[in-house]
Amino acid sequence: DAGVIQSPRHEVTEMGQEVTLRCKPISGHNSLFWYRQTMMRGLELLIYFNNNVPIDDSGMPEDRFSAKMPNASFSTLKIQPSEPRDSAVYFCASKSAVYGYTFGSGTRLTVV
Amino acid sequence: TQLLEQSPQFLSIQEGENLTVYCNSSSVFSSLQWYRQEPGEGPVLLVTVVTGGEVKKLKRLTFQFGDARKDSSLHITAAQPGDTGLYLCAGARNAGNMLTFGGGTRLMVKP
């Protein structure tokens, strides 16, 4: 099992550009989560899906952030337009009832 | 203000020492999890506790869930340099799958 796969691992972009982060959850896991981690605020839940349906997006900071899960094996988190304060490590995690949560290795986003 | 408060925030000890990390909240959680995170990687689940008063052991690590399910502790016996990392507690409410994370305890074990 390859675990939760995130891409890219690192992204550097200019302010105002669109950024798309990608996640492939573990096969068979029916819940998917997007988290953001910063030194100041720690790990914050942005949005989560159950069976590909968004359940709670109250953590999404602004309308500039959007997330989709078109099928059970793929999710995206998009920021448009990006701002320097969006710089953080973004984690995707998937969950099964039996094995609990598994996090990906994260995408380190730097907006300059 | 974090819903889950972890203490201490930083801890630097010598190999062989014992330590305890605390995770406290005013809220009740249906379950609480502990994770360890290394630089450049995501958090890795260590244990889940679900019953008030529950104690779980994982080799040199002992996890305890408070009787009221509002707090937890992680005790490491005879710490080793390989224990170095960021330790995170996370609580789940009855509302569903959502996890709320504490701010973390950054542990460094010196050889």
Q: What features would you describe in this structure?
A:
The complex is a heterodimer of chains A (112) and B (111). Chain A is mainly β. Chain A is 0% helix and 58% strand. Chain A contains no helices and eleven strands. In chain A, the strands form two sheets. In chain A, strands 2, 4, 5, 6, 9, 10 and 11 form a seven-stranded mixed beta sheet that branches. In chain A, strands 1-3-8-7 form a four-stranded antiparallel beta sheet, with no helix packed on it. In chain A, β5 (42-50) and β6 form a beta hairpin. The mean pLDDT of chain A is 94. By secondary structure, chain B is mainly beta. Chain B is built from no helices and eleven strands. In chain B, strands 2, 4, 5, 9, 10 and 11 form a six-stranded mixed beta sheet that branches. In chain B, strands 1-3-8-7-6 form a five-stranded antiparallel beta sheet, with no helix packed on it. The radius of gyration of chain B is 13 Å and the shape is globular. In chain B, 32% of the residues are buried. The mean pLDDT of chain B is 93. The A-B interface holds A 4, 31, 33, 35, 42-45, 48, 50, 55-56, 91, 93, 95, 100-106 and B 2, 33, 40-45, 48, 88, 90, 96-104.
